[in-house]
Amino acid sequence: MDIFLRNLDPIAIKKFDEMAKKKSISRQELLKAVIEKVAYEKEQNEKDMRMEMIISKNILVMGKMTEVVERLENLMHELTEE
Questions:
Q1: Are 30 and 16 in contact (CB under 8 A)?
Q2: Average pLDDT, the chain
Q3: Start-to-end C-alpha separation, the chain
Q4: Kind plus residue range of the DSSP H or E element containing 70
């Protein structure tokens, strides 16, 4: 899909041109990337937050599992000493 923009600030266009040049891409490619990033930013942030919650829950479960294993090791040690 094509988008045509009019009456843009020439200074803003110059800044985009400079950014594009630094990245060795065209203004078109840079603007396309910026628009797509903005369009998907909310969804990406939500995915990132869900992933962080999953990781936090996994860390908690791993901590509990470590405690259980330690208790089992202590119990086995006590039973084998007797």
A1: yes
A2: 94
A3: 78
A4: helix 27-81
Q: What is the DSSP letter of 74?
A: H
Query: pTM of the full predicted structure?
Result: 0.56
Instruction: State residue 46's pLDDT score.
Output: 94
Which pair of tokens denotes residue 57? 């829950």
- Residue in the block written with tokens 């990132």: 48
| Dihedral, CA of residue 53, residue 55, residue 58 and residue 63, to nearest 10 | -110
DSSP per position, 3-61: ----S--HHHHHHHHHHHHHTT--HHHHHHHHHHHHHHHHHHHHHHHHHHHHHHHHHHH
Q: How many residues does the chain have?
A: 82
For residue range 10-35, what is the model confidence (pLDDT) as tens digits? 999 999 999 999 999 999 999 999 99
